[in-house]
Amino acid sequence: MPRSALTAISARCCPYGPVTMCFDVPQRPYAAPSRQVVTVKEDEAELHRAGGEQVEEWLRQSNLIYGGLMGVGVVMVQPFLTASSLDVSATICVVAFSVAIPLLAALVLVNQQEAFRRRASGSVLVDVAKAVAQTCAFAGLVAGFWHISWMAGVGMLAGGLVGVGVHSAGYIRLEHNVDLIDSESEEPGTESTDNGQ
């Protein structure tokens, strides 16, 4: 394959510092190719920007979820504040939201800091807090609706599980299609080389 047909190079990280790679890029059909220099640091910056956009989107979605769960939790708990006695489902609702609301508020603050730094924290404690907060909020929702009617509680439980499946299927399908589009957009016959020419 002629060097002028090479339009992309896949730069790999080098532990010894920036690596410079040169390759020919045709500017116009039938024109002489020009030399383009790409350093690994520039390629790493591009990868970081692409990954950073995904992290920022996850943070936006998480903040929407956490804020919504906190709002619903406050609304669900209000009628039980003045009740003289609580049955089992009402007690579960109140206790679950009493755990979930402070954790969700803390997670919103952590997400704001992560968005400011444009990266995820990677903390195990934050991951545990996410799982506990979301589980308690969901349990509080189911128990609150169960207090109204057992059919409403079952409906909330089934709807929540189906909703998680719908979100997962949609996300996987969208990301799979992006990968397919990216692989199809690459020109056939292009290769990456690092032979130093």
The tally of domains stands at: 2
How many H/I helical runs?
Answer: 4
Radius of gyration: 26 Å
- The first-to-last residue Cα distance is 14 Å
Give the strand content: 5-15%
Given as residue ranges, the uncertain stretches (5+ residues, pLDDT < 50) are 1-25
What do the pLDDT scores average to?
76
Order of strands, widest sheet: 1-2
Helix content: 55-70%
Shape: flat
Summing up helix and strand content along with how strands pair, one would put the structural category as mainly alpha
- Following the backbone from N to C, one meets helices and strands in this order, namely EEHHHH
Strands, count: 2
Largest sheet: 2 strands, antiparallel
